[in-house]
Amino acid sequence: MLDDQAVKGLLLRTAARDEGSAEAFRRLYQICAPILLGVAQRIVGRRELAEEVLHDGFAKIGRAADTFDPLRAQPVAWMAAIVRNRAIDVRSSHDVSRMDSYHATVDDDPDGTLDRLFDWSPGADDEEDRRRASRWLRDCLSRLTAVERQSLVLAYEHGLSHGELASHLQKPLGTVKSWVRRGMKSLRACVEACMSGEAR
Amino acid sequence: MKVANKAQLDALCGEYLVGTLRGAARRRFERSLREEPQVAQRLKYWEGVVAPRYTKMIETQPSASVWNRLERELGLARYRPPWHRRAGFWRGWAAAATAALVLAIGVQLYRQEPQVVQIARLAGQDMASAVTAHLSNDGRTLVLHSARPVLAGPAQSYELWLLPPDGSVRSLAVLGSLDARFTVPQAHQRRLREGGKLAVSVEPAGGSPTGKPTGPVILAGPIKM
């Protein structure tokens, strides 16, 4: 588990563009690169492509550090979103058939994947709002049907497109699209209901 | 058609976050993120809900070449900004101002406080939080008095800005508290005149990274001498 406060401090220090910024950025990379590489590798599959994504992602993190909002965003999630975006771009622009087959690496236990991927335990520095949101998300995910959950988790972890999901799950494209859509919709409805306090 | 108007804004945000939104549709959504604040705001909301805390189990060590390339390309070793842009300088200054204040309080036990006159009253939406600004006779020392104690959180600083009539924005001080006393930077002493304004914004610890206010302005008021 990364220490969010420490990471936040390093991001702010990077954004300050002062004499300590280069060192802060180096520390930020040391601490966060292994996890972000893991995120990238799950999406693009190949190691060298994942390192490419990590490089591009970190260059962007360095440039965009001053747009990080310390009051509203979680620092690791903020950086992971940048890396994920880059990874999804790279994945779409590369010929999937030339990449390592995700069939070999994707496992079909979405619940296990979720627990491996996400740390649901509340962090010491988490605000109550965030702890609550994390609890809702987990509860709401568990209320989805198994296929909906599997589609969402596969798409999220491995950056699979609708078409790739369809071929991996060996179902028609339309069916998979509707699973994803329904999954998102139920998840949204559930989270919103939790937020307005109607669900409990 | 604007994305913000679409009934399926939530669905688009969801598919964008999960990653199934691809190609041209993804580009279009990213453009609307830049152009339509409502879209950006809605996505921010969903990012808050679906914010992963990755576990160590997915970590994998990158090869050294990635960092070496980053370091070379970003020219990290060379970068050194002018002194007035360095947060360290402002932080040092804020610390010095605090030390000066402590010293001033100590010294005041023995010595009369130099004459100061009120030059501005800074008010926010909450009238109780008003702060008055006082300038010493020689125009070199600015003193802020807060109606009630206001301390910045650990990840924040307050920054006091001077807005001269010419439309520019000058940073006067980075503060941890709105009860403060500090020396006005020499370049700004002559700018501290009637017609200008003073404002306080909330910034990341150490002050605004850009040299301009980036956080919410919580207090503002005209200078009257």
Q: How would you spell out the order of helices and strands of chain B?
A: HHHHHEEEEEEHEE
Helical content class of chain A: over 70%
| β-strand amount of chain B | 15-25%
Gyration radius of chain B (Cα, Å) is 24 Å
**Alpha-carbon distance between the termini of chain B?**
53 Å
- State Rg of chain A: 18 Å
Q: In the residues of chain B, how many domains can be counted?
A: 2
Write the layout of secondary structure elements.
The complex is a heterodimer of chains A (200) and B (225).
Chain A: H1 4-15, H2 21-44, H3 47-64, H4 75-93, H5 102-105, H6 110-117, H7 128-143, H8 146-158, H9 162-169, H10 173-195
Helix pairs in contact in A: 1-2, 2-3, 2-4, 3-4, 6-8, 7-10, 8-10, 9-10
Chain B: H1 9-18, H2 23-35, H3 37-49, H4 64-74, H5 87-108, E1 116-122, E2 131-136, E3 141-146, E4 156-163, E5 170-175, E6 180-183, H6 186-189, E7 197-204, E8 217-222
Report on the structure:
The complex is a heterodimer of chains A (200) and B (225). Chain A has 200 residues and is mainly α. Chain A folds into two domains: 1-95, Orthogonal Bundle (Rna Polymerase Sigma Factor, Chain: A); 101-200, Orthogonal Bundle (Arc Repressor Mutant, subunit A). In chain A, 72% of the residues lie in helices and 0% in strands. In chain A, helix 2 (21-44) packs antiparallel against helix 3. Chain A is globular. The model of chain A is unreliable at 97-104 (pLDDT under 50). Chain B is α+β, with helices and mostly antiparallel strands and 225 residues long. In chain B, 32% of the residues lie in helices and 23% in strands. Chain B has helices spanning 9-18, 23-35, 37-49, 64-74, 87-108, 186-189, and strands at residues 116-122, 131-136, 141-146, 156-163, 170-175, 180-183, 197-204, 217-222. Chain B has a four-stranded antiparallel β-sheet. In chain B, strands 5-4-7-8 form a four-stranded antiparallel β-sheet. Chain B is elongated. At the A-B interface, helix 1, helix 2, helix 3, helix 4 and helix 6 of A face helix 1, helix 3, helix 4 and helix 5 of B.
